[in-house]
Amino acid sequence: MTDATMVSAADTVAPPRGRPRWLSVLIHAALFIASLIMLYPLLWMLAGSVKNQNEIFGTASLIPSHFDFSSYVRGWMGAQVSFGKFFWNSFVIAVLSVIGNVISCSLAAYAFARLKFRGRNFWFALMLGTLMLPYHVTLIPQYILFLKLGWVKTFLPLIVPKFLAVDAFFIFLMVQFFRGIPRELDEAAMMDGCSAWRIYWKIMLPLSLPVLATAAIFSFLWTWDDFFGPLIYLSDINTYTVQLGLRSFVDSTGSSDWSGLFAMSSLSLVPVFLIFLFFQRLLIDGIATAGLKR
Amino acid sequence: MTYRLDRRQVLAGSAAALAFGAFGIGRAAAATHMRFLWWGSKERADRTFKAIKAYQKSHSGITIEGESFGWDNYWTRLATQTAGGNSPDLIQMDYRYIFEYARRGVLLDFTPYMGKSLDIKDFGQQNIDSGKVDGKIYGVSLGVNSSAVMVNLTAWKEAGMEPPGDDANWDDFAELCAKFTKQTKRRDYYGTADESGLEPAFEGWLRQRGKALYKDDGSLAFDAADVAAWFDYWAKLRKMKACVPPEMQALDQLTVETGMISQNKASISFGHSNQFVAYQAINKDKLGMIPYPVPAKDGKPGQYLKPAMQMSVSASSKNKDAAVAFVNYLVEDPEGTKLLGVERGVPASEKVRKELAPSLDALGKEMADFIQKLTPKVGPLPPPPPNGAGENQFLLQTVSQQVAFGKMTSQEGGKSYVEKAAANIKRG
Amino acid sequence: MGNRHDSAAQAGRIALPDVPAATAPRKAPGALSRNAPGYLFLLPWFIGFFGLTLGPALISLYLSFTDYNLLQAPNMVGLDNYVRIFTADDKFISSMKVTLFYVVCSVPLKLAFALGVALLLNRGIKGLPVYRAIFYLPSLLGSSVAIAVLWRQLFDSDGVVNTLLGHFGIQGPSWISNPNYSLYTLIVLAVWQFGSPMIIFLAGLRQIPTDMYEAASLDGASKARKFFKITLPLLTPVIFFNAVVQTIDAFKAFTPAYVISSGTGGPIDSTLFYTLYLYQEGFGYFRMGYASALAWILVIIIALFTAFSFLSARYWVHYDD
After folding, report:
1. Closest to A150 (Cβ–Cβ): which among B7, B67, B84?
2. Which residues pair with B269 in a beta bridge?
3. Does C71 sit within 8 Å of B79, measured CB to CB?
4. Same domain, A178 and A60
5. Which of A80, A251, A255 is facing B263, going by the closest CB pair?
6. Average pLDDT value for residue range B389-401
7. B292 contacts B368 by C-beta, under 8 angstroms
8. What percent of chain A clears pLDDT 90, i.e. is strictly above it?
9. Domains plus CATH for chain C?
10. Chain A contacts of C144, Cβ < 8 Å?
11. Range of the domain at A27
12. Same domain assignment for residues A123 and A196
């Protein structure tokens, strides 16, 4: 019985014996250069956000001649609505999506992993099937549905589906995890007369914090980065998310304020970066779990 | 394109709104709330919001919520809202689309209001008729404009040259621009943008040859040879380096902000006279406006005066009377028209033109003068474009790019454009 | 009772939350109440599945046979949409070409980098977590508008790429507004995000028991032999997973193409991803019937690809069971 944990991507591996020094140095050098190249675009954008307009292009240097933070202020107020509003909107949608996903997907995952009911395998297979279904094919009728419901122009089309477990990826992830929790716990509880709900609430969930956290983080990230959904459902600039706000900023300032644009772009990446910084472990373990069959 | 609302305006606006809210609690039942949708740049948005605010001030109980979009997604938004039964009360309308929307029953017929809450008799019959579909009036002209060529006067002065004059013909134009490119000291800077993909420019050129974009019955009024000749002209300019190379032109998204003149890649861009204000707002250099190059010798006038844009009201609006009254305010009221200025075009109302004349700033005067000067030289208003015409402007851009990048010859481009344009019209 | 709890706790080595015992004995459950909990827990999913997935999919299939344009009621037009797509629509052909080219170029490259770097990192490098994090970061940020905007400026005629090329005396074109090169900028963007499959490769490599390598070394196997006879075969499940997931993702790409081309898919449709084309038809021109047909064609293509992958997997993927 595997531990109720996720596949852990180990952090260290002993170097093979007898590897010549120069090879190690070479590998390190290669990795170091590769890292620089990978990060260069991001660093350039950050640098550009504090450079003067005319310093940005024409040089590849990352060092500005002097630091000019006014671009952040300009960019913040640059669209018709301040970026604070955009950040708030994105935040609201993301948090609600997280809550919706965690609740609805764990409910479904619990049913698939633990409960016996007729047709379970059939529905499970269907659920897996939806993972493969490209969103294009549900896009238009969903749009029409929301249009008729009068939800277009609000956040509802972006949030309500999350409460209906449409993100099959999370169900899948959680099912994998639940399967790793010893069944004896359930059975013991059932013998004590606990209902399925109690087991779910009092046993499964508390033990599943790692996978719930992972689902929460991925859910937040994907929602934060979502552009297409807000693009078709949000038309009032006051409801724009950060992604839409950025696009609108690009459209309205054209080529006149690159540093402002870079400043706001950098800011839009901050939440993602923070999550990456603090929850790296969970992210990496989560992906690894998804990729490897138990 | 979107626009900026400066902090003061937002604060003032919200304070006003709050005050109204506080006062209005008792009058909640009588409050009228309307929505107004338009496209345009920041300049237009600023002015429009000012006009709305002023109107709300003098008409307590009425609030108008304004929404502005860029030209490229305006029609999408409007269609979505209309389809969702959520049509704005006040709609800014364009000549290209008014027929489609009117015939689909989306717009209110203004005829019953004429002479009552809508008093636009001094527009002159032509301007009133420009908003008619099937004999009924669906649009009220917000201003008159015409095609124009924006010139960066500062750059030409720097290069020690006189910019093309009002009577330059197409060949002179090409020569001058080529010379400019050679003489200018600015890096990667060319005489003119490559306007082979700009439909109004193509239309002007066609009309000078006695042709047009569309016939009365909606079919194409030009043939592949015309298109090929048009592409050939610009190929010549590319070769002479009079205009920007295709890679640069590909960055132009047909908006004021992305035009070559605004991106500092060319000293000349083709546009419309009422965009002059917006162009000047973006460009630090001094800009001037000249008409299109004239035809060789016995050519006809290529330009015409068109309703730059029109005000329409939704047929399903719950506040028809209030909406019509506001429309009247925008086009006839001294305060409303003053705030809107000539940014949407030179006002169709003669009375308003006279009223505005003294208060126009230099830019406004230049626009008004431009229209004035042009008026004797223009041809008649062309028949309204058929359904599907909207797509053809983007099609021309694509095909012109194919020719510019060498994927097709001008002849092939001409054939391709005619075929696809006709197909678009048929599709509707 | 207490014993059972203890043994379970020991088996799982997990802190047991308090589970209060019910006092009344339970009666034998009937069929309905036996299935009820399962169905109840699945209720949100059922609503989502039927209302937002299956339902819309079937409706879109229906719409694909109509001329629905959102403003008027749909009329049946039979196979007209499909016929047009296959015979008279060159934007369909362009977008198919562009998307296929993008998929065929970016996915193998991405996987190659992912595997290559994973192999490097797996050799016991000090600071593995740091490198791994650095390579992974772009994947996290990659699909955001900010990155697409950044990318557009990197490859602009005055951008960093051209500046660097200039140091070598090469006059670079304006990558993003030149139809011959614009797609490559998007491919580079995709490959830049190899971190995500790399993590999976790393985890997969981790799972290969080291004693296999030791045994092979004892037999005198060279490094290359070890790689091709041990590593690669045992990695095939992971390669398979990554290949399928990355390919499907590549077919669904939208944001970078939209932002970099300002929604036009240009210049000259050189960045017209299939999703972008679908968006233009459905939300630009409101030809929703037509867009639905386009959507179904994509579904079929992806389904065929997936089926083909799973069938072929039998021949090259080694599962250890």
Report:
1. B84
2. B150
3. yes
4. no
5. A255
6. 88
7. no
8. 20
9. 88-316 (1.10.3720.10)
10. 224-225, 227, 243, 268-269, 272
11. 2-69
12. yes
